[in-house]
Design goal:
The protein is mostly helical and about 70 residues long. The chain contains 5 helices and no strands. It has helices at about 1-5, 10-25, 35-45, 55-60, 65-74. Helix 4 crosses helix 5.
Length: about 70
């Protein structure tokens, strides 16, 4: 539906819109998969290597153990 409404936009822009809708409305009336894992990995990449697991856990809203797991996946 997004691609139909905005045919001139680049694929990266449309994917970002889809991801943001998924984050804010995932599971609500509008069904768009949230892609939590991808979003978390992008947030970790943006935070940089200096961020500790505790800091990342607080930012992502996950446990410290899950933040450590995601950090290793990056």
């Amino acid at each position: 539906m997004i691609r139909a409404e905005l045919p001139d936009e680049q694929k990266a822009t449309l994917d970002q819109i889809k991801r943001l809708i998924g984050i804010h409305a995932g599971g609500a009336r509008v069904y768009v998969p949230a892609h939590k894992k991808r979003s978390h990995l992008e947030t970790i990449a943006a935070a940089g290597d200096q961020a500790t697991a505790e800091q990342l856990a607080k930012i992502l809203g996950v446990s410290v153990r899950r933040a450590q797991q995601l950090k290793r996946l990056r």
